[in-house]
TrEMBL record:
<feature type="region of interest" description="Disordered">
    <location>
        <begin position="1"/>
        <end position="33"/>
    </location>
</feature>
<dbReference type="InterPro" id="IPR023210">
    <property type="entry name" value="NADP_OxRdtase_dom"/>
</dbReference>
<dbReference type="GO" id="GO:0005829">
    <property type="term" value="C:cytosol"/>
</dbReference>
<dbReference type="InterPro" id="IPR036812">
    <property type="entry name" value="NAD(P)_OxRdtase_dom_sf"/>
</dbReference>
<protein>
    <submittedName>
        <fullName>Aldo/keto reductase</fullName>
    </submittedName>
</protein>
<feature type="domain" description="NADP-dependent oxidoreductase">
    <location>
        <begin position="85"/>
        <end position="371"/>
    </location>
</feature>
<dbReference type="InterPro" id="IPR050523">
    <property type="entry name" value="AKR_Detox_Biosynth"/>
</dbReference>
<dbReference type="Pfam" id="PF00248">
    <property type="entry name" value="Aldo_ket_red"/>
</dbReference>
Length: 375
C-alpha cells in the first residue's frame, strides 16, 4: 500500500515526509518557484528570481518556520500522522549520553520531526527514561508519536501476558506518559501462543495504555496468522519494523513486502544506513576501528558494498545532498514504507537524516541506485 500523505495547514504542529511523487506541502512554501511567480504577477515592478526546478530538494532545516513542520505521512490505517523519518534511539544512554541525547531530540523536533522510536531493552530502559524526561521538560508529549517495543527486556522477557503487562507499565513510567502510541512486539515469541499475546494487547488497548499495535521481526507467515486472528476479534497489527536497505533488499521485497502491503501495514525499515556504512564514512578497512559498529560495517566492505556507495555518490552529487540522505530517500520511495528508523550519535548528524524527507529522487536516479544493488 502506498502511504497516505497528509499536509498540515498553516499554524499546525510539525509533521513528516516529502519524496518523489508522494509528498505534498501546503502553500507555496513547498513550491519556491511558484512563490516567485505569484509575487511577480501581483507586482509588475518585481523581477522574479531565477526559477528553482520542481525536482530540486526542498529546504526543511532552519531555526524557525521550517517546512519540516508541514510534513506528515499517515501510519498505516491509523489516525497517527508522522514525520517521514523516525528518530531511532537505541544509542541513547549507550554511545549517546543524556546531554547528547537531549540535543539530538531537540534538533529533531526543531526540524519538524515528531516520530520517536525506542524499546524497553535499549540501554536497559535508559533510552525511554531520557525520552520521558525530555518530553516532560519540553512539554510536548501531545506533539510526539512515541513507539516502543516490549519482549526483550531481561526483567520482562518474552510476550507472555504477565511479562507484557509489566513491561508496558514500566515503559509508561520511564516515558512519563499515560499511553504508548504504537507498541511493537519486539520479537516473535514462539513459546507463547500468538492469540495469548494479542489478547493481552487487546486489554492494554482497551485500558487506554496502548493505542496501536505493531510487529517487529515477524515473518510473512506469522503476519498472515495474526490477521486471521484479528478477524476473530483480536487487535490487528498496524505497523511493521523490519531490516530493509539498499544492501538488504531480498527478504522484504519478497513475501514480506507483499503481505505487508496487502494488509495495509505502515512499514518502518531499520538498519537503513547499515550501521553507518551507507553514510560513506567507511571506504576501506583503514576506516575501521575496534568497535562493535566497525565489526558490523566490515561485512559490507566488498565489491557489492563499494558499488552501492559509488552509485550513492553520484546521486548525492546531483542532489547536492549527503549520502545518508539519499540512502534514506530511496527507502521513502519504496512501496509501503512510511518512515525509515535512523539514529544519530550527535545533534549535528540529525540534519542529514531529516533532509531525506525533502529529497525527490528522479526515476533515473532510482533505477541507477537499484541497478547497483543485488536483491
Amino acid at each position: 500500500m502506498t502511504p497516505r500523505l497528509l499536509t498540515a495547514e498553516p499554524g499546525t504542529d510539525p509533521v513528516d515526509d516529502l519524496t518523489t511523487d508522494t509528498t505534498r506541502i501546503s502553500g507555496s512554501a513547498g513550491r519556491p518557484w511558484a512563490a516567485a511567480d505569484e509575487s511577480a504577477a501581483s507586482n509588475p515592478a518585481v523581477v522574479a528570481p531565477l526559477e528553482v526546478h520542481p525536482s530540486a530538494p526542498i529546504q526543511i532545516l532552519g531555526s524557525s518556520g521550517s517546512i519540516g513542520a508541514s510534513m506528515r505521512r499517515a501510519l498505516g490505517e491509523t489516525d497517527l500522522e508522522v514525520f517521514p523519518v523516525a528518530l531511532g534511539t537505541s544509542v541513547f544512554g549507550w554511545t549517546a549520553q543524556s546531554d547528547a541525547s537531549t540535543g539530538i531530540l531537540n534538533r529533531y523536533a526543531d526540524c519538524g520531526g515528531n516520530f520517536i522510536d525506542t524499546a524497553d531493552s535499549y540501554s536497559a530502559g535508559r533510552s525511554e527514561h531520557i525520552i520521558g524526561t525530555w518530553m516532560a521538560r519540553r512539554g510536548n508529549r501531545d506533539d510526539m508519536v512515541v513507539a516502543t517495543k516490549v519482549g526483550n527486556h531481561p526483567d520482562n522477557p518474552g510476550l507472555g501476558p504477565v511479562s507484557m503487562v509489566r513491561a508496558v507499565e514500566a515503559s509508561l513510567q520511564r516515558l512519563q506518559t499515560d499511553h504508548i502510541d504504537l507498541l511493537y512486539f519486539h520479537l516473535d515469541d514462539r513459546s507463547v501462543p500468538l492469540e495469548d499475546s494479542l489478547g493481552t494487547a487487546q486489554w492494554l488497548i482497551e485500558s487506554g495504555k496502548v493505542r496501536y499495535l505493531g510487529a517487529s521481526n515477524f515473518t510473512a507467515e506469522r503476519l498472515v496468522e495474526a490477521r486471521i486472528l484479528s478477524a476473530a476479534g483480536y487487535p490487528r497489527f498496524e505497523a511493521l519494523e523490519t531490516h530493509y536497505s539498499l544492501l538488504h533488499r531480498g527478504p522484504f521485497e519478497g513475501d514480506l513486502g507483499l503481505v505487508s502491503r496487502g494488509q495495509g501495514l505502515g512499514v518502518m525499515p531499520y538498519f537503513g544506513l547499515e550501521n553507518g556504512f551507507l553514510t560513506g564514512k567507511y571506504r576501506s578497512r583503514a576506516d575501521l576501528d575496534d568497535s562493535a559498529r566497525s565489526a558490523r560495517v566490515s561485512r559490507h566492505l566488498n565489491r557489492n558494498g563499494l558499488r552501492v556507495l559509488h552509485a550513492l555518490d553520484l546521486v548525492a552529487k546531483e542532489q547536492d545532498a549527503p549520502i545518508a540522505s539519499i540512502a534514506l530517500a530511496w527507502l521513502l520511495n519504496r512501496p509501503g514504507v512510511v518512515a525509515p528508523v535512523a539514529s544519530a550519535s550527535r545533534p549535528e548528524q540529525v540534519d542529514a537524516l531529516v533532509q531525506a524527507a525533502a529529497i525527490r529522487l528522479t526515476r533515473t536516479q532510482m533505477v541507477e541506485l537499484e541497478r547497483a544493488t543485488r536483491v
